[in-house]
């Protein structure tokens, strides 16, 4: 990784300032001002839940997009000299698309749990915060899982298209690899549903 | 890993297309059919059923080997230029680097032709189309390398390679070959560094191929210079340093003065020992050039086993050239009715 002098300088300046600020707080007995708990509580649970939805949909779509362009371009290139591969290899594209659909489903499921609350009692507020964190976790899980799954299916699909162009018996075997790759996106979906279960924000 | 993710964005189509071209390279069954041809007409017929298709269909009878050579070259130039046209950076620079080798050959061809008083109109069609550049026709005007540089080559991509060659000696036969070797040495080292900077799988594949090319040139320069007036120091200046032989092997090669000495140097490197062992200077054996060609074909085939790198474009061009040489060899054997050594082509698949 080539880092230029500018980025190295910026990084060291940032680290230096952080150390300076931290030492100042610590040595002047104002360490209590650095309060993570206060920071977390001052973010509303709605914020967490809705960022969870955003991550679920956007990261899934990013993974599917990376996968589709990786595969689609190889199908185009390989299809010039071997036109028979064009239709069969659309299966890879469909498997990438499925990844985006998982993200869509989770987005809908998570957004169904978001309702308004009016209570101010701490023991009930705790439950609302719990719901917010659960929905954020669910969205992050499915988003990241689908991102990597989509990229994986796309790269394997690209290899499948090029191998199919050379030798048609290879396609079905590489498709099995793609099915395994697709399964990991499904894991993300399942865990995310379990996480968002029981996240109840209503009074 | 990051390169794998984004490689297809710019270069996926070119890679797919190049692999499609590669699947059209003649297989051993095609070669079996070709060696059994009795005339060049049969050859044309057999080539029609391969990926070549009807490329010879517009030629008038009788067919000659020169015509076949021209059409074969035209086809490969067309494919390469199509790949160059659809490529993005840094693949475009990579493909440009490949053409510099042909530019060097063209320059030397024109200078040699001028020395033998041939007209420029005869020489220009014989230049390789991949190595053409705008100032190519102006080369015949120059008398010394210094003039060649300042008048013609300073604006071309070959300018940095010419620094070592500038001298006030006149361009004559021996000098021209030395110029060719010096230019090629500078070009090979520059290409090697470029591939190394690209990093990733491209660097791994290309540096292997280019290191072999450098070592092969060192061996061939040594072997071919035994009976000429080239001194050992002059010879050492022509060895490319980007191969496995640098620095110890090149020092040893500098001091050898017969074929056995070269063999001894090669025996220190296991991959070259194998090549020299299988060859010989008797009439029945394979020559060392054939063994070098075989090894080059093997390295180029291995380039296709990995995905998401630029080496396949270089390997495809070299394999296609080898195939062209094979077809011309077979065609020559057929047309001269000298079928004893028709099987001496280098098989690719």
Automatic annotation (TrEMBL), chain A:
Assembly, per entry: V-ATPase is a heteromultimeric enzyme made up of two complexes: the ATP-hydrolytic V1 complex and the proton translocation V0 complex. The V1 complex consists of three catalytic AB heterodimers that form a heterohexamer, three peripheral stalks each consisting of EG heterodimers, one central rotor including subunits D and F, and the regulatory subunits C and H. The proton translocation complex V0 consists of the proton transport subunit a, a ring of proteolipid subunits c9c'', rotary subunit d, subunits e and f, and the accessory subunits.
One Pfam family it belongs to: ATP-synt_C
Keywords: Hydrogen ion transport, Ion transport, Membrane, Transmembrane, Transmembrane helix, Transport
Matching SUPFAM superfamilies: F1F0 ATP synthase subunit C
Cellular component annotations (GO), alphabetically ordered: proton-transporting V-type ATPase, V0 domain
Topology relative to the membrane: Multi-pass membrane protein
Transport found in the keyword field: yes
Domain of life: Eukaryota
Name of this protein: V-type proton ATPase 21 kDa proteolipid subunit c''
Protein family according to the UniProt entry: Belongs to the V-ATPase proteolipid subunit family.
Transmembrane segments: 9-28, 48-78, 90-115, 135-163, 170-194
TrEMBL record, chain B:
Database matches in InterPro entries: ATPase_csu/dsu_sf (IPR036079), ATPase_V0-cplx_csu/dsu (IPR002843), ATPase_V0-cplx_dsu (IPR016727), V-type_ATPase_csu/dsu (IPR035067), V-type_ATPase_csu/dsu_dom_3 (IPR044911)
Gene Ontology MF term list: proton-transporting ATPase activity, rotational mechanism
Protein name: V-type proton ATPase subunit
Coiled coil: none
Binding partners and assembly: V-ATPase is a heteromultimeric enzyme made up of two complexes: the ATP-hydrolytic V1 complex and the proton translocation V0 complex. The V1 complex consists of three catalytic AB heterodimers that form a heterohexamer, three peripheral stalks each consisting of EG heterodimers, one central rotor including subunits D and F, and the regulatory subunits C and H. The proton translocation complex V0 consists of the proton transport subunit a, a ring of proteolipid subunits c9c'', rotary subunit d, subunits e and f, and the accessory subunits ATP6AP1/Ac45 and ATP6AP2/PRR.
Family: Belongs to the V-ATPase V0D/AC39 subunit family.
The keyword Ribosomal protein is assigned to this record: no
Keyword annotations: Hydrogen ion transport, Ion transport, Transport
Pfam families: vATP-synt_AC39 (PF01992)
Cited function: Subunit of the V0 complex of vacuolar(H+)-ATPase (V-ATPase), a multisubunit enzyme composed of a peripheral complex (V1) that hydrolyzes ATP and a membrane integral complex (V0) that translocates protons. V-ATPase is responsible for acidifying and maintaining the pH of intracellular compartments and in some cell types, is targeted to the plasma membrane, where it is responsible for acidifying the extracellular environment. May play a role in coupling of proton transport and ATP hydrolysis. Regulator of osteoclast fusion and bone formation.
Species whose genome carries this gene: Adineta ricciae
GO cellular component, one term: proton-transporting V-type ATPase, V0 domain
């Amino acid at each position: 990784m080539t880092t230029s002098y500018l980025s190295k300088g910026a990084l060291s300046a940032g680290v230096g300032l952080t150390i300076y600020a931290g030492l100042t707080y610590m040595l002047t007995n104002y360490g209590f001002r650095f309060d993570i708990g206060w920071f977390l509580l001052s973010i509303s649970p709605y914020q967490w839940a809705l960022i969870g939805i955003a991550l679920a949909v956007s990261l899934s779509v990013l993974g599917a997009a990376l996968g589709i362009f990786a595969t689609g371009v190889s199908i185009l290139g390989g299809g010039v000299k071997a036109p028979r591969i064009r239709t069969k290899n659309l299966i890879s594209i469909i498997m990438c698309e499925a990844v985006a659909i998982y993200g869509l489903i989770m987005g809908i499921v998570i957004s169904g749990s978001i309702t308004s609350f009016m209570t101010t009692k701490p023991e009930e507020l705790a439950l609302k915060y719990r719901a917010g964190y659960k929905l954020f976790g669910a969205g992050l899980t499915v988003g990241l899982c689908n991102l990597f799954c989509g990229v994986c299916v796309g790269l394997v699909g690209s290899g499948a298209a090029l191998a199919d162009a050379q030798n048609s018996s290879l396609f079905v075997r590489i498709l099995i690899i793609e099915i395994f790759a697709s399964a990991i996106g499904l894991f993300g979906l399942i865990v995310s549903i379990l996480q968002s279960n029981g996240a109840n924000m209503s009074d | 890993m990051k390169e794998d993710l984004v490689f297809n964005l710019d270069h996926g189509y070119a890679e797919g297309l190049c692999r499609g071209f590669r699947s059209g390279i003649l297989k051993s069954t095609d070669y079996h059919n070709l060696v059994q041809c009795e005339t060049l007409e049969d050859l044309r017929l057999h080539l029609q059923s391969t990926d070549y298709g009807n490329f010879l269909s517009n030629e008038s009878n009788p067919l000659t080997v020169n015509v076949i050579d021209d059409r074969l070259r035209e086809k490969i130039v067309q494919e390469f230029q199509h790949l160059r046209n659809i490529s993005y950076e840094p693949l475009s620079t990579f493909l440009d680097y490949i053409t510099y080798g042909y530019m060097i050959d063209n320059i030397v061809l024109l200078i040699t032709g001028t020395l033998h008083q041939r007209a420029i109109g005869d020489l220009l069609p014989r230049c390789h189309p991949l190595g053409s550049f705008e100032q190519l026709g102006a080369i015949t005007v120059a008398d010394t390398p210094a003039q060649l540089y300042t008048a013609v080559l300073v604006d071309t991509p070959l300018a940095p390679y010419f620094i070592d060659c500038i001298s006030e000696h006149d361009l004559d036969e021996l000098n021209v070959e030395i110029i060719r070797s010096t230019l090629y040495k500078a070009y090979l080292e520059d290409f090697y560094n470029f591939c190394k900077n690209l990093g990733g799988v491209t660097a791994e594949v290309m540096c292997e191929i280019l290191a072999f090319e450098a070592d092969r040139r060192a061996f061939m320069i040594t072997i071919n210079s035994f009976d000429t007036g080239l001194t050992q120091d002059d010879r050492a200046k022509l060895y490319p340093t980007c191969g496995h032989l640098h620095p110890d092997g090149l020092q040893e090669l500098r001091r050898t003065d017969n074929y056995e000495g070269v063999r001894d140097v090669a025996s220190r490197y296991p991959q070259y020992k194998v090549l020299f062992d299988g060859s010989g200077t008797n009439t029945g054996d394979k020559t060392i050039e054939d063994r070098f060609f075989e090894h080059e074909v093997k390295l180029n085939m291995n380039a296709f086993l990995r995905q998401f790198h630029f080496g396949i474009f270089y390997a495809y061009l070299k394999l296609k050239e080898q195939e062209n040489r094979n077809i011309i060899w077979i065609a020559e054997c057929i047309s001269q009715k000298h079928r004893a050594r028709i099987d001496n082509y280098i098989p690719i698949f």
